[in-house]
Amino acid sequence: MHYHKSERELELGYADGQSFRLSTEFLRVMSPSAEVRGHGVGQETLQVGMRYVGLTNITQSGRYALKLHFDDGHDSGLYTWEYLWELANRRDAMWAYYLRQLEEVGASREPLGIPLNQL
Q1: What is the 3-class SS of 4-41, one letter each residue?
Q2: pLDDT in tens, 40-74
Q3: In a domain, 119, yes or no
Q4: Which domain holds residue 86?
Q5: Which of 6, 32, 53, 57 makes an SS bond possible with 77, Cβ 3.0 to 4.6 Å?
Q6: Cα 36–85–7 angle (5° rounding)?
Q7: What is the pTM of this model?
Q8: pLDDT tens, 1-38?
Q9: How many domains does the chain have?
Q10: Is residue 56 part of a domain?
């Protein structure tokens, strides 16, 4: 695992030799936290304005998951290795669905103000 800060991408390597790079924006909007996913079907909260979000820290939770600490303060939800594999393998479809959701509600990937990390 390696975080490419300038590209805001997390690179994941697996034992079978495959590696994937996932943007921090994608990881943030697909967070497994209850804050994002809700507690059931239809309770999800669409994440908007996350285009420039980055990571401040990555901590391991046992051998099964990572906790990602985003620079917007979000740090709840554990990204299991299984969930990260799913994100990597379904990225294109999940990203397209997310973009359609944004369009349907007239929301944007762009933050409402200037991100603090760009001042």
Answers
A1: ECCCCEEEEECCCCCEEEEEHHHHHHCCCCHHHHCCCC
A2: 777 788 999 999 999 999 999 989 999 999 999 99
A3: no
A4: 2-107
A5: 32
A6: 75
A7: 0.89
A8: 999 999 999 999 988 899 999 999 999 999 999 788 77
A9: 1
A10: yes
